[in-house]
Amino acid sequence: MKPRFCFIAAILLAATSFQLFAQQRIPVGLPANTPGGGIVADTLTTAPSSAIKPLPVLIAMQRVADWQLAHPASYPVNGWEQGAGDAGFMALAGISSDLKYRNAMLAVGAGTQWQLGPRKYMADDECIGQLYTELYFLYREPQMIAPMRERFDAVLANPPSAQSLDFAQPGHGQDSWSWCDALFMAPPAWIRLYAATDDERYLNFAVTNWWRTTDFLYDTNEHLFYRDSTYSTNGIRMAKRYSGVAATGG
Predict the structure, then answer these.
(1) Which CATH architecture has domain 4-39+72-199?
(2) pLDDT at position 3, please?
(3) Which of 221, 52, 27 is nearest to 232 (CA)?
(4) Running DSSP on this structure, what letter comes out for residue 145?
(5) Taking a C-beta distance cutoff of 8 angstroms, is the pair 44, 64 a contact?
(6) Separation of alpha carbons 225 and 78, rounded Å
(7) Domain map of the chain by residue range?
């Protein structure tokens, strides 16, 4: 029996943790001996440290985020490239005392009018929904998740006609979660929408399709995901990719 409960609990715990961190901000400028104090907001003028400790790591994260804010990417604002980065920004906003990261993400949502990417079934275009739901958890403004909910309801009412996960087919089967990257893009958005609405249809969709893709792409011997079905041909194990880490098998 698959650990369905553990999967659900882990995802919901992650979503809840973001909310709790965001509600327990550390005020800027308080002395180190003051409860909640000791965090320095300075980033780009602070020399980087190699120490693996909370404050140096936070400062390094803020340096990267500040650079990114100053050098915005040219990808579509509601595309997966930006959506993956936005998830990181919201994680940082939950532990940093600097409100500019949360404000930058609010500006993203306002700029997109809280719309997902244009493709109805594409997991990549659902990634930014992680941002919208995280902001909804903080502000409880219905417009933040209304377009996302409308899209997901449409997907549930009219599932894609092609259900095969074979990546070699026309369109690569990407109306379904036919490649392992999709497991980062879409399921967290669906699970968060369930957490925001208590509508179990979103939870059931995420869990069902998570396991469908996992059963199709996960190698139980190597404990790695194939990137997609084209990475395994005629029983020959080829390069596998999971979370950006590549490995080859004989």
Answers:
(1) Alpha/alpha barrel (1.50)
(2) 55
(3) 221
(4) T
(5) no
(6) 26
(7) 4-39+72-199
Which whole number is the average pLDDT over 100-110? 97
Contact 124, 79 (CB under 8 A): yes
3-state secondary structure of 158: coil
> Structure pTM?
0.78
Do the Cβ atoms of 117 and 126 come closer than 8 Å?
Answer: yes
Give yes or no for residue 33 having a pLDDT over 90. no
Q: How far apart are CA 132 and CA 115, in angstroms?
A: 9
CA-derived radius of gyration, the chain = 20
pLDDT digits (tens, 9 = 90+) for 62-83: 999 999 999 999 999 999 999 9
Burial 179-214 (b: 16+ CB within 10 A, else e): bbbbbbbbbbbbbbbbbbbeeeebbebbbebbeebe
Tokens describing residue 168:
């070699």
Query: In the predicted model, what is the mean pLDDT of residues 134-157?
Result: 98
**What 3-state DSSP class applies to 241?**
strand
Beta carbons within 8 Å of 145's beta carbon, 6+ residues apart: 114, 129, 132, 133, 136, 193, 196, 197
Lowest mean pLDDT among 3-17, 85-99, 190-204, 227-241: 3-17
Check residue 58 and report its DSSP letter: H
CA distance 187 to 168: 23
Segments of 95-216 assigned E as strands: none
Mean pLDDT of 26-34: 36
Please give the pLDDT value at position 40: 45
- In Å, how far are 2, 134, 164, 226, 241 from 91, measured between CA atoms? 29, 9, 34, 28, 24
**34 pLDDT above the threshold of 80:** no
